[in-house]
Amino acid sequence: MEFDQAQQVFLRGDLIRAQNQAEGGWRYYSGRDPLRAWEFRVLDAKVLTWRGMYGDVFPVLNAEFPGPLKNSDLDFQRRAQLGIAYIGMHKLAEAETVLTELERNCSTSGSDVIGQVLIALGMLQVERGEYNRAQALFEKSLQFARQRSNRFSEAVALLKLSNTALQQEHFEEAIDWSNAAYSAARALDARLIMEIVEGNLGWAYHKMGDSERSSSVYVEAYKHANELGDLFDEVKWLTNTGYVYLDAGKFSVAEDYYQRALGLARKIDGREDILNALVALALVTVQTGQLDLARQYSEDAIASARADGNRVDELYPMLAKGQVALRVRDFSQAEQTFREIASDQKVDPSLQWEAQHQLAGVYEEEHRFPDAAKVYRTALNSFEAARSSLHHEDFQLPFMTNATQLYDDYIHFLVEQGKTSEALQQADYSRARTLAEGLGVLRKTSSVTSATLNPQQVARLAEATILFYWLGPKQSCLWVVTQEQIRLFQLPPASEIDAAVQSYRKALLGPRDVLQTANPEGTKLFDILVAPAKQAIAPNSRVVIIPDGSLNSLNFETLLVPEPKLHYWIEDVTVINASSLRLLAAAHSSPSTKAGKLLLIGDAVAADPEYGELPEAAQEITNIEKHFAPAERQVYTRVEATAPAYLGSAPEQFAYIHFVAHGTASRLSPLDSAVILSKASAQADSFKLYARDIIPHPLRAELVTISTCYGAGSRAYTGEGLVGLSWAFLRAGAHNVIGALWDVSDTSTPLLMDQLYGELKQGRSPEVALRSAKLSLLHSDGVFRKPFYWAPFQLYTGT
Question: In angstroms, what CA-CA distances link 271 with 79, 121, 277, 799?
Answer without folding.
Answer: 21, 19, 10, 54
